[in-house]
Amino acid sequence: MVDVYIDEKFIGTVDSAKEFVKSVKAERRAGKLPFALNVSYDSDFNEVVINTITGRARRPLIVVENGEPRLKEEHLKKLKSGELSWDGLVKEGVIEYLDAGEEEEAFVALNDKYLTKEHTHLEISPIAILGMVTSLVPYANFGQSSRLNRGSKTQKQSLGMYASNFLLRIDTDVSLLHYPQRPIVKSFVHDVSKYDKHPSGHNITIAVMSLDGYNMKDAIILNKGSVERGLARSSYYRPYVVEELRYQGGLVDEIAVPDKDVKGYKSEEDYRYLEDDGIVYPGAKLLENEVVIGKTSPPRFLGELEEFSIAANMRRESSLTVKQGERGTVDFVVITENEEGNKLIQVRLRDQRNPEIGDKFASRHGQKGVIGRIVPQADMPFTASGIAPDLIFSPHSLPSRMTISHLIEVIGGKVGALSGRYIDGSTFAAESEADLRKTLLEMGFRENGTEKMYNGITGEEFTAQIFVGSMYYMKLKHMVANKLHARASGRIQLLTRQPIEGRSKGGGLRLGEMEKDCFVAHGASLLLKERFDSDRTVVHVCESCGMLAVYEEGKGKAYCTKCGANIEVSSVEMSYAFKLLLDELKAIGIYPQIHLKSKY
Questions:
Q1: Is 599 a domain residue?
Q2: Which of 36, 95, 29 has its CA nearest to residue 61?
Q3: Global pTM?
Q4: 242 & 225 share domain
Q5: How many angstroms separate the CA atoms of 504 and 262, rounded?
Q6: Residue 379 annotated among the catalytic residues of the structure
Q7: What is the pLDDT of residues 362-419, one digit of tens each?
Q8: Which of 199, 166, 205, 178 is nearest to 354 (CA)?
Q9: Core-most of 67, 81, 243, 260, by most CB within 10 Å?
């Protein structure tokens, strides 16, 4: 006997699990049971599981019986003429939806060429094995699966027009590409998803070659002329938000230009962009640490005695300033109120971002890289017909990664650009490579995509033939301007006296074990000492008991609280974090002794 469960509730038993599952599927295909029901036999637990609950991921497949798909030629004709719909196919039992449990027992053919008597289902189209974004990758069946995953990830990170009403929205940390283009090589999913309405890249000319080592590994070289003509130019938007909060006792924040008697008043120059209401005007060009919205707050803590004193009633300066390392033009100002009725000010800053060294770019095949150099157009290598590429890509990025799709797209883009048409690069149904090569040959180019190129500096002809063509490249959201991080001296943590963490707070850069090894290997001992001196402190140690002694600044004397004043006390330099450890050990009753040795 086999137990049967519906939506994880036990409802009874059956004699033959396989016969029962078969009959349930037949009833469902006949339309007597709901099509949202899925049934499967779990041999590990010897139970039949029936699911009707919501939230299951299910996918449609064509039903196969005795090696023949239920979808016939007449169905296709009716679909084209509009007599039959998708729902009609589901009701007739031609197509059924499988969930994860039922899929375990299914044997699915990729297309009808592979159908055998053992198969239970057939894919509607082989491209259905890919997700929405992955199916946008052209010639994906010529690429490696892990690179395909990266290709879909990089498309999600690409800059484009994320929403057409971006001017009316205040979103956190967004970028907008100025001149997005439709891809020349695309799949049919581009049309289905209306990709033309929100493209996120440029069709550019690329050359696959090495140039002076500036495109080593995954780095790329850009043509300065292309950048000046608007290639990969984008705007970065960042919101600054302030609320006029209410506190206990009727105290409130005040959004206005702070008075000079306010505690922590900066200087008149810092408030120069603020208007009478304390808010910056649209169009103001701000640099880091300049005030965006002026605000004063009531004193933080009011003690009973201080309630009537002048110091306690002094308001403090709490204006919002531009974050460290950022800059921009005031783009949009909104004055409104939040759900609690407090005044709410939102200011959006806009910063134009031109491609610079360190910005990240990627093709749709998981070939991502950062700009290693931007070369003046006059120094770029050029083809016999005088075309200088927009981007130079390293040939060493191809063999180990096996992204043949990247190379095919270059040829496809070249054919599309020369013949003025879009190339269908749909996975498993693309315009063949042979046809592309034939068309290229007919247009007077080499069929393998290579061309004779010349050195832009010396004018000499390169010995090798260079692979040149057009392809769709995307600028990614990872820009060096958002990641640049440096610090001299600054804020430290109260507990360990080491620099605080985080780029936005102006924190320090942590130097790890491996970085330390690099300094040792270089013999940079003074730099190493300086790096590990962030929490240097001088402590006085009693040479008798090994405990920390007390040093009186005024008298210039040191004494041990345990051994008295006549004991030898020495000053020692150590990390404050180690001194903290000693204190914590004492707190749990462990007596750490410091034994000093003479340096000489």
A1: no
A2: 95
A3: 0.84
A4: no
A5: 26
A6: no
A7: 999 999 999 999 999 999 999 999 999 999 999 999 999 999 999 999 999 999 999 9
A8: 178
A9: 243
